[in-house]
Amino acid sequence: MKIIEVEAIPLAVPFSRPFAFASGQATAADHVLVRITTDDGLVGHGEAPPRPYTYGETAGSIVSVVRDLFAPVLIGADPFARERIRADLGRTVANNAAKGAVDVALWDLVGQACGQPVHVLLGHAADDVAAAHMIGLGTPSEMVADALEVNDRYGVEAFKVKVGRDLAHDLAAVRELRRELGDSIELYADANRGWDADTAVVAARRLADFHVTMLEEPNPADDVLGRRRIVRESPIPIVGDESTISLGGVARSLLDGDSQAISVKVARTGFTDSAKIVGLCEGLGVATTIGNQIDGMLGTVASTALGCGLRSLARHPVEVTTFLLMTDDVLTEPPTIADGRIAARQGPGLGVTIDPDKLAHYRADR
Ligand code: MUC
Ligand code: MG
């Protein structure tokens, strides 16, 4: 089987409301759909959500890098040769969302060629996983209303609370959430590098008082000694996310004492590198969770496949709800969350079909 075509299609799907966090705000899904076609007629898909405020990638940069740098390497390659392709694409540093979407599309093709869903190829640890919801920044009452609605409608019992702005405001929101949701609900927090080290140490102690289970990216990890001090003094584990976006980056962060757990995102490390990161962390006794790069429906299906594929990821709730912000998307069948859980697709590969009318409607290049 040989790849004959690689497309990078920019999409524009409005959100029903903005999603805000300490380092930025997303108002629409300006994602790039990567579509890879083979000589035997199989078509694989991956979704690249650009997060310029975090990684510097834009929809335009993703389209260019896939079309101009990656497509020439991919054309003629066998999708099963993922290690060779990884090495070839890996010569270009960064551009993680572009690489992640290519890798997801390759696994989609391999699954289709084998007649097996991706989560089964990865190791079939579970058929479904618990769902976690990210609560964007807002007033405490807006944040509580969001959490209660998701808990009520979808049965979700794990919430990642965005923090990292004014500490008093952050703590007021967490206090309200704990009071309204009760003690059995998991709350963990993500500051997206919004605090300095001194604030973060105080914040970690106060968040622990509300039984917040972990704290993601409290400060910029480049504040090297500051980050180590937070890790030393925090009563709850510090999670690496945007500072741990590659296999080597995760190794460095753990060895340097910058983080004690790792958020893995299919959107930036695909299935191949996500599995390598999880293996590294398993060997070191470090917990991994599946994070969300404000994924659309395709990314959500991919994250669910990863969570159901690998045992240590199936343990913690997977962040899968951001597609609910989108007013629509290009899949024929949206993901479904019920009783707090989301199931892996049973069809070969990712088990998704793209709706041609929706694709024509939402593509931003025509
Ligand atoms: C997260 O976990 O940080 C916000 C920005 C981004 O790149 O991902 C999200 C969620
Ligand atoms: Mg994060």
From TrEMBL:
Pfam families: MR_MLE_C, MR_MLE_N. Residues 140-237 form the Mandelate racemase/muconate lactonizing enzyme C-terminal domain. One of its GO terms (biological process) is peptide metabolic process. CDD domains: MLE_like (cd03315). GO terms for molecular function: magnesium ion binding; racemase and epimerase activity. Its cofactor is Mg(2+). Keywords: Isomerase, Magnesium, Metal-binding. InterPro entries: Enolase-like_C_sf, Enolase-like_N, Enolase_C-like, Mandel_Rmase/mucon_lact_enz_CS, Mandelate_racemase_C, Mandelate_racemase_N_dom, Muconate_cycloisomerase_anti. SUPFAM superfamilies: Enolase C-terminal domain-like, Enolase N-terminal domain-like. Belongs to the mandelate racemase/muconate lactonizing enzyme family. This is L-alanine-DL-glutamate epimerase-like enolase superfamily enzyme.
